[in-house]
Amino acid sequence: MAGSISFLCSVVIIPSGMAKKITAIVVNYFTVHLLPPILASLEEEPSVAEIIVADNSRQSALQDCIKPFGKAKLLTFPENIGFGAAVNRAAVMAGGDFRLVLNPDIRLLPGAITALTDAATSTGATLTGPRYYWDDQLTFRFSPATGHSLWLRTGMEMAERYRPDSALVDFTTDAMFQRHWQAQEPFAEPFLNGACLLIRNDPALFPAAKIFDEQFFMYFEDTDLSLRMLLRGDYPVCAPGATAIHYWNQSPSGQKSQMMADSEKVRSEERRVGKECRSRW
């Protein structure tokens, strides 16, 4: 039974009961140099039962990279099948109560995984995420994910032309930021950043372990997943006790702009079809 969640904080706490088991999934795309620190932290975490490294790049050094980590296993694809598809294939192999999906350029601060599982258990949320910093010194804080919301993007466009809208957009985004960073208890967020995402293992929600919509080859798959949960009334939850560092823009791909544009086309098409799109959620 899920806890009742407000957009300020969770108001019903459910006893956590037995310890939860987690399968961590890390997608590699020419990022083998980033893997050892995140694999080491996952290896030491008692609640992480296994680590699946889903490899979209067939790097020759990857097998040697994961050898020191007893929980790690390698899943290799003959070509780059995309982030969401790689996670889905790994999820088919995964056991446990939760999947912890991670970018290789993430570093989890001590206690982050416990805070994520506690928040997910107490609120009953399907999706739970941390708060992020950009740097090791914990100086620069990430803003909450906006989901590239159409209403907010429209407001930002109007803000460039109309001074009152500029002031309103500034007020709204600052209020979102302050709320995100001042909260002390798990709270609902419409969208979560997919760089570190704890996902409940629920076969009814994810038949055949298909978590992400594979139409999104790269980028916005986390936005789509958050929106699907939001429209069910299953609000994604941010756990303030969980902190991660996300070393921004570490992808080696020179096609980032094109991949984002391709994913944006999928989103635009879903908006255009409207009712048909909503029916699948």
Summarize the structure.
By secondary structure, the chain is an alpha/beta fold.
Please bin the fraction of helical residues.
Answer: 25-40%
What's the count of strands? 9
Number of helices: 9
- Outline type: globular
Structural Rg: 19 Å
Q: How confident is the prediction overall: mean pLDDT?
A: 84
Structure write-up:
- The protein is of the alpha/beta class.
- Helix content is 37%, strand content 19%.
- Strand 1, helix 1 and strand 2 form a beta-alpha-beta unit.
Tags for this entry?
single chain; 281 residues; alpha/beta; 9-stranded mixed sheet; 9 helices; 9 strands; 37% helix; 19% strand; disordered C terminus
How do the helices and strands line up, and which of them pair or pack?
Blueprint: E1 22-28, H1 35-43, E2 48-55, H2 62-66, E3 72-76, H3 83-93, E4 98-102, E5 106-108, H4 112-123, E6 127-133, H5 150-159, H6 163-182, E7 187-188, E8 196-200, H7 221-232, E9 237-246, H8 256-273, H9 275-280
Parallel strand pairs: 1-2, 1-4, 2-3, 6-9
Antiparallel strand pairs: 4-8, 5-9, 6-8, 7-9
